[in-house]
Amino acid sequence: MKLVKKLATILSLGLLAASVHAVDFGGALENNTRLGTPDFSRWELSQQDSLTGWLKVPFNNEGTLYFATEGNLYFNYNKMDLSNSSSSTTDFLLDIGLFKFGGVFNIGNNILQLNVGRFYTSDVTGIIMTQTADGVQGAFTSSMFKASLYAAYTGLTNAMFGIINDGPSSTFLPDYDKLYCFNSPYIVTGATFSAPNLFANQTIGLEFFGMFGTKGINCSNAGYNRTYLTLFMNGPIAKNLFYTLTSSLAFNGGIANLSVAELSYYPNFMSASIVFNATYASGETGSIKAFESFSSNSATYAYSLPEYTNLLKFGLRGSLKPLDSLYTTLGTDLVLDSGSDFGFRGIQWDAGVKYQIFTDLQAGFTAKQFIDFKNDANNNISFALNVRLAF
Known about the structure:
The chain is mainly beta. It is built from one helix and 18 strands.
């Protein structure tokens, strides 16, 4: 109780100090409706309505010292079979995805950024660590290099908005019927170092993430630890042509690998982009272990929502903005197993359009399909409509 009172006092004093500066706040109403089927014999309907509120309180005229928070209330409706009147479920969910104090400090020609509280963090691959957590982050930027340190705890966030891949010894059993379900407990540490423009405008860097299982409110991951080490490079190749390369080693009772290559071209035509990417996630092959990310992320649109493991994926995507208010995308991926036979697993495509009707009103539509070459049960096709009103 004393700690809660101290935090409340600090926050109250901070808000009082900020009263002389411009407080920024707002919100949004959003609806996501999805219709899908694995084999056209059964159609599923899911609908999510959300209310978002956010607040940013500056503590100085420049806005470089501030407090920011954002919360979401969700209503979910799911019907697993439209032909079955008793197959529907409903629930309410609460998420506080942002609650932090931030600061940007100029130190000569260098910049120091600090974040303390709850905020989202992603690793350079966007696959290994994509998680909201409670902690601290510091980043130092100079003309010669960039460096950052990160430490956080995951056990107080909502498990529905950041699912973690746990080990076999974990006692974490989420109760998704609750409004707020505490997440699986880990202490996460991270460090990134990069040298921008090291040669010919190329950037090279190294990133480390360590996840260490610990005891939580009503469960334990104690003893289940894993670490990831990533080498990354990116930069221009020619005019409007850029590349990104990452290769990660995962250490968890063995060595696994995740490698991603991306080639991006931006022609001077309707803000267009053309992106080719290739992703490799090792499977169990000889001395190489199956790769597993810390955060759960779906690698394909297959009905089973597979993780990034035993996977080789080649993709081509394009985007076009024919009008200032209209954005379109089209993409396809070829999916293979990354084992010794490199067998074809399936093919998928997606298409989307997003229209900015007014400044505060946006609507979008997406279609996706996965065709499995081995298991018809993983076939999947879905259509989704999104409408968002900001205020």
